[in-house]
């Protein structure tokens, strides 16, 4: 049956246990691409040579089959009961010059949101302390900026916040827009665990959502950072399909996707393909369902259905087995049984706390109850990441 505890870590070129082979090859499961590719993932580990057609065929598999095989890969690659709890705080809200169509923080839209200055240290640390007491192990700080260039005072303050929150024993993540190379190095020195960098949607659909910056413009910035001479053996590398881009010494990064922006299923597959073909998969893949905010150009978008989330999560799990797949914005709309389906499909991280930047999030007590009822356990913070295997994965991918 299904509830088998497999080894928690994927190993390259290993074979599935005989009973798993039996499951995978039984007549009920051989027909779907989800079954075939899940078996390959279990056997071979992470791959970076996915074709778009392969991912599309996994994505298009019958939903229950996809859910089953997402769960199977999840149980092979992770402790399936562990769920990471992250708290996301908007430390500088609103007044952003960009025009991201989904975002109430853009100064171009009349959403009633008041722009605020950078939060002071006491308020940020107090929020981090509360998050820790509530069980969060990662604290993420978001600032509504295009970039951090020329924001020296604010940036130095953020370095202090990072340092102090790390000293509280939490993982620390930032999303501050585009960085200069020295800033990435300084963030790492301060103790930053992860940097969030957003793709949002497929390259093709991107111009429908954001016009004030493009994939290529961002690439140029990243190339500038690399060309400025950061050692590419240092710990942060953002690899994009067009080359290797070093951003300093922060090892991990999140690459976020949002569904429900009006994109086609092909665009969702395109986003997953972009992420899954990076030489090193993102440490985290937050999957967001649009929370349509009045006053933004996407205010009339239809809510995302639970089956669309399950499809995205299970496909992400099969094609990026080691990534933390985060059930992010929009979770507040899903019931506990619906969230259970997401965890079963392969999600293993959530955002907790009252708000997700500016939109509502799930109630703390309801989350505690959910953990208890579903038998989930909070994932402990990790400060000793498996650098060797990640580096080996990268080397293999780069040389192939
Ligand atoms: S998503 Fe970020 S960059 Fe885009 S408008 Fe909102 S705050 Fe600005």
Automatic annotation (TrEMBL):
Q: Which InterPro entries does the UniProt entry name for this protein?
A: Aldolase_TIM, BATS_dom, Biotin_synth/BioAB, Biotin_synthase, Elp3/MiaA/NifB-like_rSAM, rSAM, rSAM_sf
Instruction: Note whether 4Fe-4S occurs among the keywords.
Output: yes
Q: Which cofactor names does the annotation list?
A: [4Fe-4S] cluster; [2Fe-2S] cluster
Note how many cofactor molecules are bound and how: Binds 1 [4Fe-4S] cluster. The cluster is coordinated with 3 cysteines and an exchangeable S-adenosyl-L-methionine. Binds 1 [2Fe-2S] cluster. The cluster is coordinated with 3 cysteines and 1 arginine.
| Pathway assigned in UniProt | Cofactor biosynthesis; biotin biosynthesis; biotin from 7,8-diaminononanoate: step 2/2
What's its EC? 2.8.1.6
Family classification: Belongs to the radical SAM superfamily. Biotin synthase family.
What is the name of this protein?
Answer: biotin synthase
Q: Which organism is it from?
A: Senna tora
């Amino acid at each position: 049956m299904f509830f088998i505890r497999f080894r928690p870590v994927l190993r390259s070129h290993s074979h599935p246990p005989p009973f798993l082979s039996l499951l995978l090859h039984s007549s009920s499961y051989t027909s779907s691409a989800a079954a075939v590719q899940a078996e390959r993932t279990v056997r071979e580990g992470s791959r970076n040579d996915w074709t778009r057609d392969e991912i599309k065929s996994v994505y298009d598999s019958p939903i229950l089959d996809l859910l089953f095989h997402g769960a199977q890969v999840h149980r092979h690659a992770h402790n399936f009961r562990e769920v990471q709890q992250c708290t996301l705080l908007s430390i500088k809200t609103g007044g952003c010059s960009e025009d991201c169509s989904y975002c109430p923080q853009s100064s171009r839209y009349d959403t009633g949101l008041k722009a605020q200055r950078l939060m002071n240290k006491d308020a940020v640390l107090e929020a981090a302390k509360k998050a820790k007491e509530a069980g969060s192990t990662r604290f993420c700080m978001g600032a509504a900026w295009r970039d951090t260039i020329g924001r020296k005072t604010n940036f130095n303050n953020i370095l202090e916040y990072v340092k102090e929150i790390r000293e509280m024993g939490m993982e620390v993540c930032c999303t501050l827009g585009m960085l200069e190379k020295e800033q990435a190095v300084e963030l790492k020195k301060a103790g930053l665990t992860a940097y969030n960098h957003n793709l949002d949607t497929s390259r093709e659909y991107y111009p429908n959502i954001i016009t004030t910056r493009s994939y290529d413009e961002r690439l140029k910035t990243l190339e500038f950072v690399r060309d400025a001479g950061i050692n590419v053996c240092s710990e942060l590398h953002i690899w994009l399909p067009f080359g290797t881009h070093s951003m300093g010494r922060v090892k991990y990064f999140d690459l976020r996707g949002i569904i429900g922006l009006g994109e086609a299923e092909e665009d969702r597959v395109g986003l997953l393909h972009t992420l899954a073909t990076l030489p090193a998969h993102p440490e985290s893949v937050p999957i967001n369902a649009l929370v349509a905010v009045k006053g933004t150009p996407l205010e009339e978008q239809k809510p995302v259905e639970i089956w669309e989330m399950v499809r995205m999560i299970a496909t992400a799990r099969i094609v990026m087995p080691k990534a933390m797949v985060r059930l992010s914005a929009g979770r507040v709309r899903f019931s506990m049984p619906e969230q259970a389906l997401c965890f079963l499909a392969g999600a293993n991280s959530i955002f907790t706390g009252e708000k997700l930047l500016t939109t509502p999030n799930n109630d703390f007590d309801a989350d505690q109850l959910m953990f208890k009822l579903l038998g989930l356990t909070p994932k402990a913070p990790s400060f000793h990441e498996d650098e060797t295997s990640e580096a080996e994965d990268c080397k293999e991918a780069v040389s192939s």
